[in-house]
Specification:
The structure is a homodimer of 234-residue chains. Chain A has 234 residues and is an alpha/beta fold. The first copy, chain A, has a single domain (2-221), classed as Ribonuclease Z/Hydroxyacylglutathione hydrolase-like (Metallo-beta-lactamase, Chain A). Chain A has helices spanning 36-46, 66-73, 150-161, 184-190, 199-207, 217-225; strands at 2-8, 13-19, 25-29, 49-54, 76-80, 90-92, 97-100, 103-109, 118-122, 128-132, 135-136, 139-140, 169-172, 182-183. A six-stranded mixed beta sheet of chain A has the order 1-2-3-4-5-6, with helices on one face. In chain A, strand 11 and strand 12 form a beta hairpin. Chain A binds chain B through residues 4-9, 22, 35, 38, 45-46, 177-181, 185-186, 189-190, and chain B through 4-9, 22, 35, 38, 45-46, 177-181, 185-186, 189-190.
């Protein structure tokens, strides 16, 4: 399997390209609209056919490339079943599996950062989970807007992600310190918001982060509800 | 095997931590001094014992953490045999192999970016090569100082790296556009400085890049000739 992690430095976003093999079919997870030229170059050079473009949730810090990728590649746009983006072609149910050309991706409903956030588990010899913003490396996504809920975040992480197993690689939607991946074991044992904490303590931590709104929020959220194309398809 | 790519955003540098397993022995390649707190955290949390810290070459854009890592972990500092850094504990010869607790790393002399640059090939089910600055993703390292030589760069890439095989993953010392890895096949076929070019054309391209000197060069090179500790060991 081809697995590529790509970083958008403007928003600190990780996007993921998965393909079965050169010449095979591919998926994109959490693509960023400004990176479209790079994505099209990579799809061409790897000689892969994009069949699905997925977001883990409605992002507030960057504009998605879902619609732009669909326009160019005719891929399906995909989100979790509680997304309010009516531009999406397919809504994944909790525990639904996408099997694409040898890539097995399972959707896991993990609300908390938003009320419609999903994580995507990737099977294979080295299982991995793309956690979007619910679980970050030694951190977690804020829970103070878009239906965010700290209790739901705790439950998603501890009841849905931790049971995936200690060896599972964790690939987040963001990292701001240059770390590219982690494991469930590391986050269970060393994430400072989770390790040794109670659910009540976590809720208290998240209630007191006092973060400013994302700079792009007022633009990004409405744009992303239209798959990144509020002006209509290109 | 544990493999971690870490990014220093200030200098755009990728560093690599390899370890056999939790509780096992580890290597660092191209560590950045400013990232020491993160490295020590990760070594502790992964419960690995650092036995070697290697640089691919004498960097001109950041200060190495080799000396600082040695001070804290008692690891050996390692560079290629043509390094002028007399602080180094072990100088690898061309084709010399380090076997550490199940990790097999082979040193490949790849001059061109500097006259003492080595690449490090990592064996295993998915071979990979850490190319430092001689081969970048869709680019190559500049060849205009520190004994750089465009012809040597061409020869290193085409005669030492390309023969590693198309499936070999390429992990570079830098990327400035958010790409994290590549393959030998991609660079052979799609690197714009190499694909379809002759050696003479490559030399001409490299002679006309007209790049400014790295901002940190006057500080970084002398510091790195002392393993990042021009003031003496901490």
């Amino acid at each position: 399997m081809i697995f590529r992690q790509l970083f958008d430095s403007t928003s600190g976003t990780y996007s993921y390209l998965l393909a079965s093999r050169r010449g095979g079919e591919a998926l994109f997870v959490d693509p960023v609209r400004e990176q479209m030229p790079a994505y099209l170059q990579l799809l061409t050079e790897l000689d892969v056919r994009l069949v699905h473009a997925l977001d883990t949730h409605t992002h507030a810090d960057h504009v998605t490339a879902l619609g732009a990728l669909r326009d160019v590649t005719q891929c399906r746009t995909v989100m979790g079943e509680f997304s309010r983006a009516d531009c999406v072609d397919h809504y994944l149910s909790d525990d639904e599996t996408l099997d694409v050309d040898g890539i097995r991706l399972r959707a896991i409903y993990t609300p908390g950062h938003t009320n419609e956030s999903f994580s995507y588990w990737i099977g294979g010899p080295q299982p991995a989970v793309l956690t979007g913003d619910v679980l970050l490396i030694r951190g977690t996504g804020r829970t103070d807007f878009q239906g965010g809920d700290a209790g739901a975040s705790w439950d998603s992480i501890t009841q849905r992600l931790f049971p995936l197993g200690d060896e599972t690689l964790v690939y987040p939607g963001h990292d701001y310190k240059g770390w590219t991946c982690s494991t469930i074991e590391e986050e269970r044992r060393f994430n400072p918001r989770l390790a040794g904490r109670t659910r009540a303590e976590y809720i208290d931590i998240m209630a007191n982060l006092n973060l400013p709104d994302p700079k792009m929020m007022d633009v990004a959220v409405p744009a992303n509800l239209a798959c990144g194309q509020p002006e209509g398809r290109d």
